[in-house]
Amino acid sequence: MIGTRERVFGGVGGAAGLALLYAIGVEPCWIQTVNVEISLPRLPKAFDGYSILQLSDLHTRRYGRRERIIRRIIESLPKPNLAVITGDMVHTPAGIPHFLRTVENLTAVDGVYAIFGNSEHKNGVRPGAFARELQEKGIKPLLNSNVIIERDGASIALVGVDDPVSFMEDMPAALEGLDESIFKLLLMHTPDGISEAVVRGIDLCLSGHTHGGQVKLPIVGALFTHSHLGRRMSHGYYAGKMLHQIIGIRPGRTQLYVTRGLGISGLALRFLCRPELTIITLRKGLPGVQYG
């Protein structure tokens, strides 16, 4: 009887050890390229098929295996129409040159834009100086501001807010000067501000911050998402009834995509929650999503 019990507990312990080795040594670098098509009623016809490459939450500390893999994936992809980085690019100032090396070949037809997450406002990172370094490398910070993107005589507004977690966001300033009728694509580090995005008439919001929970368990799902909205908004696409149930107000035309991001923070592992590089294709049509 004792021998049987020892074998059972020994087997459980061995499985747990293997799972931990996998979570530390395999999954953090097993990057998934996720293809998403999002249909939007107000999207100008000229932007049907418009491609957006989204990177988020790299939390760069050094130029290691994960960074080399990210760089290779970026270099292997067709040039998108737009590239966006939705915050938490670095963990400390020491990570800045390694982040810039990782994304130095990131290009897009209509430019590369970045917003800040909470990591850009702590651990000694100087946001102003970092913004200037990004600008010098061709990455345009979009912090509580907007830019108009034109295509075949039509236009959409790309809107970016500074980090809501650090209370640096200013949505009214970000939307300043925009006509109510223009299609609005919002970059916002955390999905926690989605209710205000709904009230402001945003068409599509792209966020990160949650890491998808970073650690997920079968049946249970994400253990912790760093979001006030809880585990129900860990990652993926949200709109309509699902979004209504989470935020408690009707979302109207607003749709949201939350990426699992590329990095790790806190626990140096990922489990059943692979890092994600996202390619989003905009389609004109009734609200909905399709994964490629």
Structural commentary:
- The protein has 292 residues and is of the alpha/beta class.
- It is built from 7 helices and 15 strands.
- It is 24% helix and 25% strand.
- Strand 7, helix 5 and strand 8 form a beta-alpha-beta unit.
- The N and C termini lie far apart (52 Å).
Cα radius of gyration in angstroms: 20 Å
Give the helix tally: 7
Q: Beta-strand percentage? A: 25-35%
The tally of beta strands, per DSSP, is: 15
Shape: globular
- Uncertain spans: none
Order of helices and strands: HEEHEHEHEEEHEHEEEEHEEE
CATH class of the largest domain: Alpha Beta
Category from helices, strands and their pairing: alpha/beta
- What kind of sheet is the major sheet? 7 strands, mixed
Under CATH, the homologous superfamily of the largest domain reads Metallo-dependent phosphatases
CATH architecture of the largest domain: 4-Layer Sandwich
Number of domains: 2
CATH topological fold name of the largest domain:
Purple Acid Phosphatase, chain A, domain 2
User: CA-to-CA gap between the ends?
Assistant: 52 Å
Q: What are the SSEs and their pairings?
A:
Layout: H1 2-25, E1 32-40, E2 50-55, H2 65-76, E3 82-86, H3 96-102, E4 112-115, H4 127-136, E5 139-141, E6 145-151, E7 154-160, H5 171-174, E8 183-187, H6 194-199, E9 204-207, E10 216-217, E11 221-222, E12 236-238, H7 240-247, E13 255-258, E14 276-284, E15 288-291
Parallel strand pairs: 1-14, 2-3, 3-4, 4-5, 7-8, 8-9, 9-13
Antiparallel strand pairs: 1-15, 2-14, 6-7, 10-11, 12-13
